[in-house]
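Exam revision sheet. Question 4 asks you to relate a sequence to its structure. Input first:
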Amino acid sequence: MNLPQNKSDPFAAMKIAEFRHLMMGRFSFIMGLRMLGTLVGWWIYELTNEPFAIGLVGLAEVIPAVSLSLYAGYIIDISEKRKLLLKGISFYLVCALLLLLLSTNFSAAQLSKNWIAFGIYIIIFLTGIIRAFTGPTFGTMVASIVPKNYLQNATTWNQGIWLSASVTGHATVGFLIAFIGNTKSLIIISCMILIGLFFLNQLKSKPPLIVRGEKTGLDSVKEGLVYVYQTKELLGALSLDLFAVFFGGAVAMIPVFAKDILKVGPVGFGWLNAAADIGAIIIIILLTFFPLRSGQGKKLLLAVGGFGVCIIIFALSKLFWLSFAVLVISGILDGISMIVRGTIVQMKTPDHMRGRVMSVNSMFINSSNELGQFESGMAAKLLGVIPSVIFGGCMTILVVTTTWFKAPTLRKMEY
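Answer key, structure tokens:
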């Protein structure tokens, strides 16, 4: 491996050929997944005209993803990671093809809207099972390819690639739905996942760092959970993200805002979905060249608090440009949070426990995003859409305020 010599080089990690293959594969795969998630949210709302139904999509995915997270971490640590990752993405491709079948005129003629919606939930449940294994595996691959002194740079690139794929997927699928419909959009999504498979197939084998049977499966699973609990900066950062995103999940209600409140249709829906990711990619580009040098813990808390304020403004806005702008700002603040949290996870995790710790990390992320989506749907049903989003923003600010005073270790943390 030819390693770059300048540790301050913003392109240090990208000069490693295998890391570039990982990033290109991840970009294509994540772009396909984000397109898929955005399309499913719009599709379900079209079928049901019920905001709560959008929340059920998140619940369908999060139940298996969270339930299997700890076990998945153990499997990742004892498995050859390249093979495991390729299997998971291949199964994702199968799920995308099943959704493609459900979207056809043939299925519409044979099945009622309720049965099609039920089929979507079942397939999303299956993707939740797959996600429990694939998400953490990507995290372990970064550290197995990049030397430890380049991990902060690699983490920034990793998050930037994820967000670039996310914003591209969100924006693109809005236009695709508008101009070519769900079925042809799903064909393109399937092709994106297939391209991701091609690039990831170029990676070298990544053998396990612990031996199967070295500890019982249960003891090994508990070891990862205990490590996260005992590492206070890691636990604090993950917990903050869990509760802030759980209550601040306004993105889940964007189909309702786009269709019924702002009345901007599928193209506007795509841009609103992409707005936060646009903001995040802007800040991540800046942080690649000008990384945070001090006070990372305090900046993390301030960023999450500002995110909550943006969610409240979004809920109150009746103007498309204002809604778009505050979502961009929320993405900038969320990008800071993602970089700080991601760097803590990479730097604080021993190599032999990466699968298990990444799975705990994935469990927190899945809980915050998908359970947050369900919470948003439930709150919208009980309170109404706009009050529910205001409530979520206020709760995010409350979580940050409580963490500021109750978790001084996280507030004072630097790396």
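Marking note for examiners. The chain has one domain: 13-209+216-411.
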